[in-house]
Specification:
2 domains; six-stranded parallel beta sheet; 16 helices; alpha/beta; Rossmann fold; seven-stranded parallel beta sheet
């Protein structure tokens, strides 16, 4: 049973690794995995052909500048899939790349499953039809997505959010917890996983908190980022910590994306930040059709956490937002409970694995 997976970002690597384990368990280890992803997928038993750190291009301008590399990646990926001949192809988020691969794979009569579908409800809704036409199954992770696809005549399976699995399984490093006790107040800075995000947002976050001697700053280092990038910004590396920081953090400044939802599931009050290339931002602003940029607010369908976007993301505004957060923290945590309830309980990876294995049965 040969299964090929493509994950182009850190979050996809995390969810792909849990999916691989769930499929292995449900299939009595009869499945063999190959694909594009990261260290977590590799540790779960997937042969990694290309690491996601070589695939992360953020924004329209960055994509144009790296177009030749991206086109080479498409060719390399198609060639590898065709030579390996998997029985099923699992695409995990990463829509700019994966939607094109889905079309090609469909033409080659390869069964395609899209796990963690692109956020077509936010922008470029015409992609709904590509998803419906080129895939055998859509596995969605947000409670409102099933109804969205139904509006366009496409069936999907709601499996729940895999972050709940990841957090349920997570155990913080005991030594880290001992060294970061409750006698201090910690603020976590999560400036994103891509180089462009980190360079745009980490300096602003640092300027907002450096004067606060009552706060201990912890910075989440992305696994895909070169540690020298943080040293370039901070002139030091000693405050870079891994994702354990959310287990001890009291507050957080978080780059928009999956990390906002994970921060909420760790019950840490946060301010959501976004700052990108101005050209890319102006294009996105005209295309995006959503009330909020953070998954926390989107799932709640109301403002739970403050969002500071583009020109509003300044050190002064972050200071004000952080002061407000220190007062409103208990209310934010109460609102997080509603978000958690809407996402359901753990088990998304197992439910997704079951749906995928159904497609591998003879005659399906």
């Amino acid at each position: 049973m040969k299964i090929y997976l493509i994950a182009g970002e850190a979050s996809g690597d995390l969810h792909g690794s849990n999916l691989i384990r769930a499929i292995s368990s449900a299939s009595d280890n009869k499945a063999v995995f190959r694909g594009w992803g990261g260290d977590l997928m590799e540790n779960a038993g997937c042969h990694i052909v290309k690491h996601f750190r070589d695939l992360a291009f953020m924004g329209f301008l960055e994509v144009v500048k790296n177009l030749r590399t991206i086109l080479h990646n498409f060719d390399d990926c198609k060639k590898d899939i065709q030579e390996w001949q998997p029985e099923i192809l699992i695409l995990i988020d990463y829509p700019g790349f994966n939607l094109r691969i889905a079309r090609w794979a469909h033409e080659k009569k390869i069964k395609v499953v899209y796990y963690i579908t692109p956020q077509v409800w936010a922008w470029h809704k015409s992609r709904v039809h590509k998803l419906g036409k080129y895939t055998r199954k859509l596995l969605v992770i947000l409670p409102f997505e099933k109804a969205f696809f139904r509006q366009y005549g496409y069936d999907s399976t709601y499996v729940g959010h895999p972050l709940l699995d990841a957090i349920f399984q997570f155990r913080p490093d005991p030594e880290f917890v001992r060294n970061h006790g409750p006698e201090n107040v910690y603020i976590a800075l999560l400036p994103g996983s891509r180089r462009q995000e980190i360079k745009a947002m980490l300096p602003v976050m640092l300027r907002a908190v450096t004067e606060r001697k009552d706060l201990k700053v912890l910075i989440a280092g992305a696994p895909s980022a070169d540690p020298s990038l943080y040293k370039e910004i901070m002139q030091e590396e000693n405050c870079i910590e891994n994702y354990d920081i959310l287990s001890v953090a009291n507050y957080a400044l978080v780059s928009s994306g999956t990390a906002t939802l994970e921060t909420a599931l760790f019950n840490v009050p946060q301010v959501v930040c976004y700052k990108g290339n101005m050209f890319s931002y102006q294009i996105a602003k005209r295309l995006v059709d959503i009330k909020f940029i953070s998954l926390v607010n989107l799932v709640a369908d109301r403002l739970v956490v403050q969002e500071l976007i583009q020109d509003d993301l300044t050190a002064d505004n972050l200071k004000i937002a952080l002061s407000r957060l220190e007062t409103n923290g208990p209310k934010v945590k109460a609102d997080y409970h509603e978000v958690r309830e809407k996402l359901g309980g753990p088990g998304a990876s197992s439910r997704a694995a079951e749906a995928i294995l159904q497609l591998l049965k003879p005659g399906v």
